[in-house]
Design a protein that fits this description.
This protein is mainly α. The protein contains 8 helices and 2 strands, in the order H-H-H-H-H-H-H-E-E-H.
Length: 214
Amino acid sequence: MSGNNNPATAQPTLSLDTFLDGIWKENPVFIHLLGMCPVLAVSNSVINALSMGMATMFVLIMSNMVVSLVRHWVPGQIRIATFIVIIATFVTVAEYAMQAISLEVYQALGAYVPLIVVNCTILGRAESFASKNPLLPSLVDGVGVGIGFTFAIFMMGAVREVLGAGTFLEIPLFGPNFEPWVVMVLPGGGFFVLGALLLVVVWINERFKKENAV
């Protein structure tokens, strides 16, 4: 008998959806509500939000690639421990790089940089996707989900900085008479903005569903 009809060994189809799903349909923040701790804690400014988003995306992409490469050699009993060691390695690289590039931003982010190790988004993609797929799809998935996470935390940071400080990337927007909404840069402001953005995302998704159903 020639050919291989075993679905378990079939290669996944790499498509644009592999990339786009992580940005919107499977956005880790707006859809799955994962990685909420750094999203709420460090999104009080655009610079902090982008820095955390880029660091998380780097770790996500690199860990996805390595997990995909070693997936056939890691015994199932220790796979989670192995994934955490891989993720922790790249978190250390990101942490040292951030210190070298901008010590001020690193200090502003505080303990949330090393806590990328326990970000459910990264471990979840390693377990559910990278450990089951070849290198290229895992790379594309990491890029898509990383952009989705960075987009979400950037939106949080932009809204909170504009309303809470009257600036964008520390550039004044409204002049000296603007009265900042101080609550937006406080912890409670993160919950208010997140709730509002989740409502917008749900509304957009529901509208698309109705249009497609017509």
